[in-house]
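Reviewers asked in the last cycle whether our approach scales beyond single polypeptides. To address this, we selected a multi-component target totalling 348 residues and predicted its structure end to end. The input consisted of the following lines:
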Amino acid sequence: MLMNLALIGFGNVARRFVQLLDELRVALRDEHDVECRVVGIATRRHGCAMDPAGLDGRQALETVARGERLEGLSTREAPRDALDLLRRLAPVAGAAPLVALETTTLNVTDGQPAVDHIRAAFDAGAHVVTANKGPVACAFGQLRAEALARGRQFFFEGAVMDGVPLFNLFRESLPAVRVLGLRGIVNTTTNFIIAGMERGQSFDEALSDMQRAGIAEADASLDVDGWDAAAKTAALMNVLMAADVSPAAIDRTGISRLTPAQVQAARAAGRAIKLVASAWLDEGGPRGRVAPETLEAGDPLARIDGVANAIYLRTDVMGELGIVQCGGDLTQTAYALVTDLVSVRRRL
Ligand SMILES: NC(=O)c1ccc[n+]([C@@H]2O[C@H](COP(=O)([O-])OP(=O)(O)OC[C@H]3O[C@@H](n4cnc5c(N)ncnc54)[C@H](OP(=O)(O)O)[C@@H]3O)[C@@H](O)[C@H]2O)c1
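The resulting structure, written as structure tokens, was:
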């Protein structure tokens, strides 16, 4: 089945996704009946492009790599912005399923402009796939209700732990199970900085490594101050624990005050300092917290080093379930978008 794709945001994740689609093209077509055509791209500073007959993904990649704008790829007047693109793609949604892939910059305050992009995509008849945790952390309940009411699909596997099937696992394989709480290490950049300081790197050197790899957020203070982890905690609570919280509701402390001496002293004493995200139910409802914790050696999170992430879910029926990602980079986040596309296809 041919699926038309509108790429809202064309940064690190979306560009790797375009390459990965090409790398997985035969398997997606032969094993999952998914064939994709990019019909529109919207960015903030690199312009927009639209062609209902299909844009050349490789050409788009080369254009932005040269630092040029995308308008020249359009066969008709280029859209002004993401909302204009989605409006003008609405007729395309009648011919073949249209899927908007939202990968714009994270905003932990209100999830914008991604929330507006997702609503505009629903208006245009599109299903939505996103790796942006902002909308899931800030407006999940409303967006899910709007998607349901309008017969649209809304998937967000890449919002937490890249392509590791966490939300898919819960949705597809744990029917009727209640998540009572969770604990995890969910921010790669801070975990890498802590591991780097344990090895003798300075805070800034370790952060620079993550920025060079395209893993740190565009605004690295979102990682260092715990906002990214708080947004993921809110997203996990909203989806897995039926909460209705935003990142600001998470009790949050970042790692900016940690020093190499502190993390090395903890290691020397057989412990480990980690930025731990946790959520639990109390009488007032679900509560969340992100803070550096000194963990005993026997704590499974104490062994989650460097680029690894882990989440342990406490459930009513299945006891405790642990999901460990030994390493992740842009390919795994891009793959999350691919798995969500296959999920859309399976429901059509
Ligand atoms: N990088 C990772 O490893 C990773 C992992 C999991 C989740 N994520 C999430 O995935 C999303 C994308 O990450 P990224 O690393 O690809 O970010 P990025 O490289 O900074 O790219 C963001 C893209 O969004 C575009 N954009 C921003 N505001 C826009 C607007 N109002 N309208 C249209 N386009 C807009 C930017 O346009 P310009 O190109 O013109 O600046 C850029 O193309 C973020 O929400 C991030 O939290 C990233």
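The longest strand covers residues 272-282. We regard this as preliminary and will revisit it once experimental data from Aim 1 are available.
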